[in-house]
Each structure stands twice: as C-alpha cells, then as structure tokens.
Amino acid sequence: MAPLNVLGSSGGVLPSMGFGAAPLGNLYRPLTDAEVHALLHAAWDAGFRYFDTAPLYGFGLSEQRLGAFLGSKPRDSFIVSTKAGRILVPNDGWHEQRAYFVDAPAYEPVFDYSYDGIMRSFEASLERLNLDRIDILLMHDIGEKTHGAAHDAQFHIAMEGGYRAMDELRRAGLVGSIGIGANEWQVCDLAMDRGDWDCFLLAGRYTLLEQGALVPFLERCGRESKQVIIGGAFNSGILATGVVEGARFDYGTAPADVVARVQALDAVCRVHRVPLAAAALQFPLAHSAVSTVIPGFGSKAELDEILQWTATAIPPAFWQDLKARGLIDQRAPVPTDAVCMVLT
Fold first, then answer.
1. In a 10 Å sphere around its CB, with 0-12 CB exposed, 13-18 middle and 19+ buried, how is residue 224 labelled?
2. Could you tell me the pTM of the whole model?
3. Fewer CB atoms near the end CB (10 Å): N or C, the chain?
4. CATH superfamily label, 5-324
C-alpha cells in the first residue's frame, strides 16, 4: 500500500483512511447537531482530512452537517467526495429509505442519472456543503442488483447524460475527479468501457469476508491506474461487531452462510490474538489499486476503536493461516508489514 496517492485529474492527495459520513445522516440512530459537531471535531483533531458523504445520507442532513463543520476550515486543508444520481423531492410521509435514516428531513431520494439530474444534484450538494467546488464527484448506486429490470435503461441514461454532465464539471474545474460509488464491482468494470473515470468507490465487495472484485475488476484498475476507495470494509457491521444478535450484513440481517464464515474468520483471529475489526480494516489496503478505506463511525467511542484497530500490529502468520484455511482468496495480496494509516 502506498500511503499517499494523487487522485486522477484533481491534483489532490487521498490519505489511506477517510471519514465515512453516512452516520451523520442519522444512519440507524439519531445524532444531535451538537454530537455531530463534537464527533467531527474529534476526527479532525485525530487527523482526518478526507470526508465522504452523499445526498442520500439523511436526505441532505449529512452534507449539511459536514458543510457546517468544514466551513471554518481552510478550503485546501480537506478533501470532500459526494455523490450524484438522486434528486431529493419533498415527502413528509413514509418511504423505504426511512428505515435506514432516523428522523431525517422531509424528503425522498429519487433516482435521476440524466444530464439535468446530475447537474441539479451537484448544485444542491454545493449549497448544502457550502462549497464552491467538489474534490470528487461519484455517480451513486448504479448497477443491476440495485435497479433490477430497469438496469439497462438506467445505465444508458447514466453513461450518456450523467457522464457528460460529470465530465463537463471536471473540465470546468468545479469537480476535481469523477468516479462511481456503488455496491457492485461489475457495473464499475462495465462503466470503464464507457468513460474516462478517475476512481471508484466500491462498498462491501472487497473485504475480509468477500473478494469477488479481485479479478478482474481490481486487477484491471491496477493495470489502468484507476484508484479504488473501499467503503463498507466491515460489510455493514458484522466484521466490526462479530457474530452478535442483530449483526448486519449488506444493510440487513446477516444470513446463515455469512454468519458461519465470520465465525470461522473470528476463530483464526482469536488464535492469533488479532481483533477481527482490525484485520477487516487493514486487509483491503494491501492491494496496490486500493488507495483509501472510509469506515463510518457515529461516536467518539467508535472513532477511538477505529484508531486503535488501525494501530494494531498483525503478524504475517495470521494472513498465512487465513489462506491456508481457504478463508481469503489465495490471489489476494495481504499486508507484509504493519499498516501505517495516513489520515492527512
């Protein structure tokens, strides 16, 4: 893992760990503005300078809270990525996304990957973040598993209209780099044939638990010098909590096969006295195409845990044991030395 990487056309430098700001949108539990400010202050003091958010997270709430905090910081002292592909429309009633974002504002996120939709989303994000430019703009949640039968139509709109808008913003200097933020590596691989993307934010698909993205996607990213940001390194929680009642995988209750695999991983961790979460956080960074991991945390206690896990020394024998037991892909690179997380 290279500790610092220059991201595409932005000229900015991505640290090896960033702040995943979904919890600022009241993901699974509500936070007060005061709690959010204290958390961001603690993260800043700890050295975090890269922050990832999205209009989806709390229906604008995450962006607003992040923007309020960063407004007092010099603009060139931090990096922000946000996403486009959804428009927030007024709705004070129930919709399925409210199952994730507690007490969020009266909006509903509606997919729109058109040229106008991307532009409208970008302009609204600028206003909420109180910024005049975005360092990294990511097209959010395209893919067959997300859109089902509508995938082909949505993908066509995204690659024609949406990509054109993002490319124009990049050319105008309003966006430093453009990419895709998705839970599906396949659609990122497909999109590489349709546009000049700088990076990809892949959530949950290259983790200690699953390495399906290793070949051909990460292999191709390395070959074509496309940087990968890893979200969901804990697979929505189960690699941080271990197998406990209510453990989450992919934003839902973990199925039995996932529970069994995590139990097997945890058993090896116990033998080597390695925290499961530390292994999960450090594993993706061993791949040369991966520049950054962005764990989400919603409290000072969780921040302290993240920092402790990043500082945990993991012996090479641990990784060798995982491969010997068939618990990680034999082709997956693993850390050979202590991982040094760079935050700034």
1. exposed
2. 0.95
3. C
4. NADP-dependent oxidoreductase domain (3.20.20.100)
